[in-house]
Amino acid sequence: MDRMDDLEAFLAIVEKGSQAAAARHLRRSLQSIGRSLAALEQGLGVELVRRTTRWSNPTEAGLAFYHRVRPAFLEIREARLETASSRTEPSGLLTIGAPTLFAPVFVAPAICDFMERYPQIEVELKASDRQADLLEGGLDLAVRIRDMPDSDLKARRLGSLRIVVFGAPAYFAEHGRPGHPDDLGRHQCVLRTTDGDAGTWPFRIGGRRRIVRVGGRFRTDSTAAMHAVAARGLGIGRAPFWQIRDLVEQNVVEVVLEPFEAVRLPVHAVWPPTKIPPAKTRLFVDILAARLRRERL
């Protein structure tokens, strides 16, 4: 048995609480897990785990060994997987999920670069704002614009999005420009109903996150409609900067309250945890990350 397999078995025993649970997690036999642990302890000359009929608890030495070894083990495993996956030209179908508006602007151009570079690749892009389960949705990879909760998914941060407040010059000429988020209570705001509680906008005030309640006569579940009515001067809107970048450059709308902008929204690429991530997944993520670094997000 490879020594890496012995270390993997030990780490799984500590994390899962028993040899049986480790065997199920690693899809190995209970006897194989026991042999790996015994071989590791014999090689080190110290007991790492105390066994009972139902539980396996690390000794003091075992716990110290676990904390020292785990980061190194993960680093070595990632290096081995990357090397193995780079041996062959990527080929086959890559299925990618991405948010509806983000997909054509950023993901599709990266797909074009990817397919030009690797002619044996096929790609299916599924654009949806629904956070579908990757395996259930048949996705190899998904782009998600959100903070990532703890999960088994592998994730790589690709960048972050600036969220801005904006309005038409005609609106500001008639109603004045808000100088502080608290001023929004006296303004008409254009609300997007798909944002959960559409009447609450987060800001960073005095170095802390604070929610400000806003209201207005127009609500919509359409991002494009929200941009359009704000551009016509019906009220003040809030959106990712990249969505209104062209309107700003054309002087159709102006950004306000910049000193109070909330923390940027992270963009992640996520994929299912696998023993050997396909080369096509890693290579596409590299291309998408490089493209996003060049964008004004």
What this model shows, in words?
- The structure is a single chain.
- Helices cover 40% and strands 23% of the residues.
- It has 297 residues and is α/β, with parallel strands linked by helices.
- The strands form 5 sheets. It has a 5-stranded mixed β-sheet with strand order 4-3-5-14-6, with helices on one face.
- Strand 9 and strand 10 form a beta hairpin.
- Helix 1 packs across helix 3.
- The longest helix has 26 residues.
- The radius of gyration is 26 Å and the shape is elongated.
- 26% of the residues are buried.
- The model has no long low-confidence stretch (mean pLDDT 88).
Low-pLDDT segments:
none
User: What is the string of helix and strand elements?
Assistant: HHHEEHEHEEEEHEEEEHEHEEH
Shape: elongated
* Number of helical regions: 9
Question: What is the distance, rounded to the nearest whole angstrom, between the alpha carbons of the first and last residues?
Answer: 49 Å
Biggest β-sheet, characterized? 5 strands, mixed
**Count of extended strands:** 14
Helical proportion? 40-55%
Approximately how much beta-strand content do the residues carry?
15-25%
Explain the layout of strands and helices.
Layout (H helix, E strand, L loop, with lengths): L2 H14 L2 H8 L3 H15 L4 E3 L4 E3 L1 H26 L6 E7 L3 H16 L3 E7 L13 E5 L8 E8 L1 E5 L1 H7 L15 E2 L7 E6 L2 E6 L5 E2 L2 H9 L5 E4 H9 L4 E3 L8 E7 L7 H15 L4
Parallel strand pairs: 3-4, 3-5, 8-11
Antiparallel strand pairs: 1-2, 5-14, 6-14, 7-12, 7-13, 9-10
